[in-house]
Specification:
This protein is an alpha/beta fold. It contains eight helices and 14 strands. The protein has helices at residues 56-62, 78-81, 88-91, 104-113, 115-119, 179-184, 207-217, 233-239; strands at 2-7, 37-41, 47-50, 70-72, 98-102, 128-132, 138-139, 142-151, 154-163, 166-171, 190-194, 221-225, 244-246, 251-254. The chain has a seven-stranded mixed beta sheet. Strands 7-8-9-10-11-12-13 form a seven-stranded mixed beta sheet. β3, α1 and β4 (70-72) form a beta-alpha-beta unit. The chain is globular, with a radius of gyration of 17 Å. The N and C termini lie close together (6 Å).
Amino acid sequence: MKLIVLGCGTSTGVPRIGNDWGACDPRDPKNRRTRVSILVESDAGNRLLVDTSPDLRQQMLANEIDRLDAVFWTHDHADHCHGIDDLRPFRFGRSSGLPGFASSATISRLKPRFSYVFKGEHGYPNIVELSSLENLRMFAGFGVESLEMPHGPIKSTGYRFEADGKSIGYATDFSELTDTMIAFFANVDILVTDCLRRQPHPTHANLSRALDFAKRTKARKTVLSHLDKSMDYATLSEEIPAGVLVGYDGMHLKA
């Protein structure tokens, strides 16, 4: 099974508008970060997308992705869903909408905001057939598990995908590390974790919490993501222990 980090930046990306790179070296291409999203691919070639960032079109072109089997959402914050319209090309040639999955709470907020995506409009068909994650255990040859994680005042959905005897966990946008999360992600081959900055944040994991997460879950590899402009790739790479990697746009890893 393969992981593609499509985007690993925070909500404003790196650099921020105004060409603000913060502490990130603009000469290092690994510091240029679009908004967070990943894709997992099985050995059979089946592909699941997690989140539709505002940079989705750019990410699909950069990684030469022209086909998806389904899309999953973590929550409805703009940096995770406002690229939803770029799913339209994946609807072309299909007899029905692209399968999509989210928690019931996320669905209740996505549907009114993007009604044309889920219902169709003005003679255009729907783009996505949206279903609840409740009772979903398998899809397109992947084992799929999910749990709700604290993200400040709301919840964000974490995912564990299994295929070909391997596992990939995705836990972005969480503000507290719970025992349930540790058990859920235990022993994954790859763990992608929220890691906004070094300083504590009210709705995101910081570096200390992300490293604690990696250690307690005993993940074989951990990828730090949702990184802001204070997290220079080269500098951060020198700080972290073996088995932990700084994510970058276009990173490909085999589980």
